[in-house]
Amino acid sequence: MRIEPMDRNECIRILKDLLAQIESLSSATSDLDMAKAELNALYTKSPSAVRDFDSTQKKAFIESKVGHEPTKPKGAIKLAVPVYLSKKKAYDKTYADYMERYKKAEKEYYAEYKDTREKLESEEKATIAFEIQLAEDALNRAIEKYQSATALLSENEVLSEKLKNALIVATLIEYFQDQRVDCIKDAVNLYYEEEHRKRLEAFAEEQVRLTAEAAEQARLAAISASDAADSAEEALRRVDEAMRKAEEAYDRANEAYSEAQSAYWAVTSNKD
Q1: I want to staple 149 with a disulfide (CB 3.0 to 4.6 A). Which of 28, 71, 132, 256 is the partner?
Q2: How many CB atoms lie within 10 A of CB 28?
């Protein structure tokens, strides 16, 4: 039995269906990751209702009972030691009395707002538990969606697993739309050919880059060698100049010694 080849439109439709499945799995994967992250955030969520209530009510309540905290003596007073010690002693006593009244007012605050704080805590726990339940339900739905998309894509045997990539399938569709191929097999072969060509071009470009880089390094090395040679030549010239000056100094020293010796003998002879 002879199998009639599919026309281009049919090939395009098949590939577009595959592309839709790939994109569906990608979306399902993203949704699953998001659902996991949201649930984990709720599991680690720190209750804040009571803390927020205390931050707005506790300070005002206590200050209404005991006033503001005493002001500590300023450091500048330390220069006048007797005055400073006197003020510090008075401050310590006032502060100790204030703290005693503060702790008493704090207990009054917790007693007065006990029911309110417990209600806030209970309501927040219930809210978090409800949000966790919703997040768990969303996670289960995301898992089901992911598993369904995975199974559906796995069952599609139009292309091998390594070719089930959105960019690759979109490229194959483009081959048909540009009328470069007539069947999926030809499209796959063309894809591999172009990928091979791209790799060769990339390899050639890399070789050109490496060659140019090596040439540049050689050029810089040549410049460095030339500079080193010039430096060596200059160093030798300076050594020669130093030697010449040393010889001249030695000659002058000999002349001076000879002159001194002659003068010495002349003086000695005159005395005789």
Answers
A1: 28
A2: 20
